Amino acid sequence: MIDIPHRSSWLRLAEILYLLTISLSFYFLVLSRTGEAHTVWEVLHPALLSALFLASSFLVAVSLSSERIACKMLFITFHSVLIHSFLSVIFPAGDFSGQQMVLGRIIRLQNDALFHGWPPGPFGSIQVEIFARFGGMNFQGAITIALSQMLSVDLLWVHLFLVPILWGVFTPIAVYLATSTFASDDKVPVLASLLISAFPYATYFGAISVPNSLGYIFFFYSVCFMLRYLSSNDYKTLVLVVLFSFFSLFAHYLTGITSFSLLFLTLAFRAYKNEKAPKLTAKASLIFSFIVSASLLPLSLIYLRLFRPITQTAFTLNKFYELPLQEIVSLALIGELSHGFDLRTVFLVLLGSAVAFVCMIYLLYDLRKNPQTRSRIQIYLLIAAFLLVLVDYRILKLFMEELPLNEERLWVFRDFLAAPFVAVVLYAVVLRLSTSLRAMSSLTPARTRIKKSTNHKSFGFFGILLILNLLLPILIGGWITYSLNAAYPRLSPLQTTWYELEAVKSIDETTKEKYVVIGDLWTIYAGERIVGINNPRAYYFAELDKTGLDLFTNMKRDPSSRWMQDAMNITDTTVAYFIISEPRLGTTEFNTVLLKTIQSGLRWRALGEGKLYIFTYEKSNSLLQWHLTCDTKYV
Amino acid sequence: MENKFAYKLESCIRRDRFFFFSLLSYGATAAIFVNTAILGSTALGLLSTLAYLLINAVFLGTAFFAKEDGFFRLTLGILLLIMLLGFIGWIMIVLYTFNAVTLTMALVIVTTISSVLKRTVGSKGDRYPA
Predict the structure, then answer these.
(1) What share of chain A is helix, strand, coil (3-state, %, to 5)?
(2) Which residues are CB-neighbours of A360 under 8 A, at least 6 positions away?
(3) Where are the domains of chain A?
(4) A70, A143, A151: residue with CB nearest B85
(5) Which phi and psi angles does A374 have, rounded to 5°?
(6) pLDDT tens track for B103-118
(7) Which chain B residues have a beta carbon less than 8 Å from that of A109?
(8) Is the ipTM of this complex over 0.90?
(9) B2 touching chain A per CB within 8 A
(10) A139 forms bridges with which residues in the sheet?
(11) How far apart are CA A237 and CA A223, in angstroms?
(12) Domain extent listing, chain B
């Protein structure tokens, strides 16, 4: 809402409508909760995206108004929390894989720290022990367990919503603070803090509770205070820079290393700024610092093997020898998006960065013409950081192999650094349109020498109303809502289902003895959700544990108590369970395995209308008590 | 902060006259301990945790972000508090264990650090309205 008569009443109306639509969106999201789905798109309430689109549009209108900044930011955090909570609200155990693996380890951490000390050894070497003690899992685990105990809330709920809420609240504020270091108008940082939600990769990592996501949050703040440090002599700013960089390293090595790379670059920029008349040597040292900073991440990943022997990262030119030129170019330009190319996803993922890149080029050109611009050095640092991430991504993607993580994680850094520039562009468009419309409404009568009429005034008023208060909010709100299409996957394996969780829960509630469960990866994920991983009382093998995989394969091929006996001997337990489910194995294999297992004489029970079967075998062969308490038929 | 109640409350906590809010924070810690060890009530846990977070976040916000607007001071204070809590919790986990007693120890340490930082770091340079 820009300079419209009766602004306050328009503004109040937009705020009320925003609060109404965002509340409806939350309600529709809760209604979308399901126990069995592959992706959020299968079960999303039909009205949710419409309500969210309206909420986003009203929010854009409020963001461009003269409302207090605190109020705007509060509204933005509601919106941000909502769009990052899809996975945690809709699926019964959050997103499969990473999020559940971390939960499994946090539950184990809680149990082991309580009873056996943490981290469990032996480690083999001092470096591995350091990594085990300082790994981000412990830090996230400490926060999750502390909050869970303080609130007396189940660990699962705290874990599921930890990152979506922290990200939803703190990331927009970080973007605001970073943008405010160089933006001349205070509406630009607000717009930037809203626009970070239009970047799909940033949205996805804000939706899953993993240490890397926590690391991103601390990284964002380290960048904010680095930008401030360039023009501040306050020691607190430096303390905050170091503190946030340290915590980003503490949470995850990727964010920590990138943070320290940028810290090095910041120090170089500060030294450059303090030069009274920067000479050629000062500029050369800046370029040298950029090269050193850019090489820090690839080199650190190589030496990560000292602390994490499983990592075998190395530089290589294999991709250039093995891949055709076309594929190398696609990898360099759009990375993993080149696999299963989808134009819409590519467009949504790259749009923001492309706009930001064009804006950066324009700003560089503009700053050359106006070298006395107040926040010149902050803009240079942001552009340098953006370029550093682009360069590092290409190095990791094309010149390295066996990386411990997906290179596309660097896109979250890129998105954070791009958001302020996209806001600058959009706000420039808003201002240009506003000026043009005002000029039209006031100058047209003078030019044509026609007496000012109320028609022209109303044209100007409605023109501004239409374009600035309807069209732009609709466009930006639409972009933010539409970008969710690329943020949340459209193809995915079946998420952990209610009957898998029910199976794990009923086994745990009804088995008094120590037990082991033989199952596929999905059973392990479900187990991690309830009892954690490698729990000596309720043992689930780790996801990549070969013993567990072999036992499951053997049970499928030749179901007999022999493998269950082996599992009990290996894990020092007295009861063994074997779980199979139809959606995971496929109908044909499921029926074959089911028939053979029943014929082998193992006791069984069915769950989920026959989609899942639990087979059991006890070491002492005595009658199990647990099945008697189950309400389902036990044969 | 336009909201007068929130502004007054924040000013009171920032002043912390006679260590009233520091003591209240220790009181909230005691309530958390009793709740964790005996009662297990989510309502009591939520109430005492909110009180704990609010007081210590204002302390840390005052110490490091005195120049910021009230909203940013509070949210950045909460972020620092979570970092500090995670760090002390991590030390507890790695060195010893993490149960109701060590959680309470961690909360007491965090409160003490926040209160001391507010009185030392926060009092240098940036003054806040009396």
Answers:
(1) 70, 5, 25
(2) A383, A386, A421
(3) 7-424, 498-629
(4) A143
(5) -60, -50
(6) 999 999 999 999 999 9
(7) 93
(8) yes
(9) yes
(10) none
(11) 11
(12) 7-120
